[in-house]
Design a protein that fits this description.
This protein has seven helices and no strands. The protein is an all-alpha fold. The N and C termini lie far apart (37 Å). Keywords: Signal.
Length: 142
């Protein structure tokens, strides 16, 4: 019984570890509203895949990875070689997280950019997972 209780507890806790879209603040809400449907159309990602990733489940397939890459580009927070735009990242931080998350995303992007990986979709995916792993409670995935 205990062997099932611990993973279940971890799953319940993990399901609440992200920034709810209602808490994005005006700048990110406006930007997310613009790119969300566009990136869904481009990638074929479903709302369920997006919600699962928002909750920290990075087991998704190519569609959600493409959605993520689309976000990075369309929000203009990085280019196709994953050079991040720290000022843009800062401008999108929710008010209650000012100074807390932009550097995490930029540092993870830099870390992944310096690896052997050169496929942008995979680089962006690994960078997002890194950002989640560093601070799951404040993870943002529009």
């Amino acid at each position: 019984m205990l062997k099932y209780l611990i993973p279940l507890t971890a799953l319940i806790v993990a399901s609440y570890c992200y920034v709810d879209p209602k808490d994005y603040g005006p700048a990110l809400t406006k930007a997310a509203d613009i790119v969300h449907q566009e990136c869904r159309n481009i990638s074929g990602a479903t709302e369920e895949e997006i919600l699962q990733t928002r909750k920290g489940d990075f087991s998704g397939g190519i569609n959600i990875k493409r959605y993520n890459a689309c976000l990075w580009l369309h929000l203009q927070v990085a280019n196709t070689t994953l050079h991040s735009n720290l000022e843009k990242l800062k401008s999108l931080e929710p008010p209650h997280l000012k100074g807390k998350v932009a550097h995490i995303y930029a540092n993870c992007a830099e870390k992944i950019r310096l690896t052997e990986e050169k496929d942008f979709v995979e680089m962006a995916w690994k960078s997002s997972k890194c950002s989640h792993d560093v601070d799951p409670e404040n993870y943002i995935f529009p």
